[in-house]
C-alpha cells in the first residue's frame, strides 16, 4: 500500500466530513498516486497554536478524486476516514522511527511510503489500522461551488523534486 504522509500546519483541511482539499492544502500533491493518507501535525508555531503539533491528526484510506478545475488539485474523498485533530495520539509514542524522520526542523514536509524503511512502514501500517473500519467521507454537497477555497496553504506541487520522492500524478 502506497501511503502519502505529510505534516500539517492547521486544522480544517480535511474538514470533518472527510473532504481533503477544501482549502487547497497540499495542492497538486493531492493528485499523486497513493492508497492512503496520514496527516501529522507539524512543528511550526501555527500547528502548536492549533494544538495539532506532533500528533496523528487524520487518516484516510481508499482515495476517490473529485476534479476541481480552479484548484491546484482534486478534492479527495475516502472509503475510510477518521479525523482526530488535537485529540490525536502523539507520533513519538506510536511511531518513534517515523517521528524521528518527520519531526525535526530539516525534515521534509511530506513523504511517500516507498521511501520508508521496513520498520517505519510497520509503524505506518499500525497507524492505518486506526481508520480501517472507519466510515467513508460524506458526499460533497450538491449545489456548492467546489472550486472556491480560502488558499490558506502555501503552494506545493508535483515538481521534479517531488517526483523523485515518489509522486506520480
- Oligomeric form: single chain
Order of helices and strands: EEHEEHHEHH
Summed up, the helix count is 5
Question: What would you call the structural class?
Answer: alpha+beta
Shape: globular
Beta content comes to 15-25%
Rg for CA atoms: 15 Å
Contiguous runs where pLDDT drops below 50 for at least 5 residues: 143-169
Provide the residue-averaged pLDDT: 86
Strand order of the largest sheet: 4-3-2-1-5
Residue share in helix: 10-25%
Number of domains: 1
Q: How many runs of DSSP E, i.e. beta strands?
A: 5
Largest β sheet strand count, sense and barrel closure? 5 strands, mixed
Q: N- to C-terminal separation?
A: 16 Å
Write the layout of secondary structure elements.
Blueprint: E1 3-8, E2 36-41, H1 45-49, E3 56-66, E4 75-83, H2 91-94, H3 96-102, E5 110-112, H4 118-128, H5 160-164
Parallel strand pairs: 1-2
Antiparallel strand pairs: 1-5, 2-3, 3-4
Entry summary:
The protein has 169 residues and is of the alpha+beta class. Helices cover 19% and strands 21% of the residues.
Walk me through what this model shows.
With 169 residues, the chain is of the alpha+beta class. The chain has one domain. 19% of the residues lie in helices and 21% in strands. The protein contains 5 helices and 5 strands. A 5-stranded mixed sheet has the order 4-3-2-1-5, covered by helices on one side. A hairpin with an 8-residue loop joins strand 3 (56-66) and strand 4 (75-83). The longest helix is centred in the last third of the chain and has 11 residues, at 118-128. The two termini are 16 Å apart. The relative contact order is 0.25.
Amino acid at each position: 500500500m502506497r501511503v502519502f504522509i505529510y505534516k500539517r500546519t492547521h486544522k480544517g483541511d480535511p474538514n470533518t466530513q472527510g473532504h481533503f482539499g477544501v482549502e487547497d492544502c497540499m495542492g497538486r500533491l493531492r493528485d499523486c498516486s497513493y492508497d492512503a493518507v496520514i496527516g501529522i501535525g507539524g512543528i511550526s508555531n501555527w500547528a502548536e497554536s492549533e494544538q495539532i503539533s506532533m500528533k496523528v491528526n487524520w487518516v484516510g484510506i481508499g482515495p476517490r478524486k473529485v476534479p476541481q478545475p480552479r484548484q491546484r488539485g482534486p478534492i479527495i474523498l475516502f472509503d475510510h476516514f477518521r479525523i482526530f485533530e488535537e485529540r490525536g495520539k502523539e507520533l513519538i509514542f506510536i511511531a518513534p522511527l517515523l517521528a524521528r524522520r518527520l519531526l525535526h526542523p530539516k525534515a521534509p514536509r511530506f513523504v511517500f511510503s516507498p521511501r520508508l524503511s521496513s520498520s517505519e512502514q510497520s509503524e505506518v501500517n499500525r497507524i492505518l489500522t486506526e481508520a480501517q473500519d472507519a466510515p467513508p467521507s460524506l458526499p460533497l454537497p450538491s449545489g456548492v461551488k467546489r472550486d472556491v477555497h480560502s488558499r490558506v496553504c502555501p503552494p506545493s506541487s508535483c515538481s521534479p523534486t517531488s517526483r523523485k520522492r515518489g509522486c506520480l500524478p
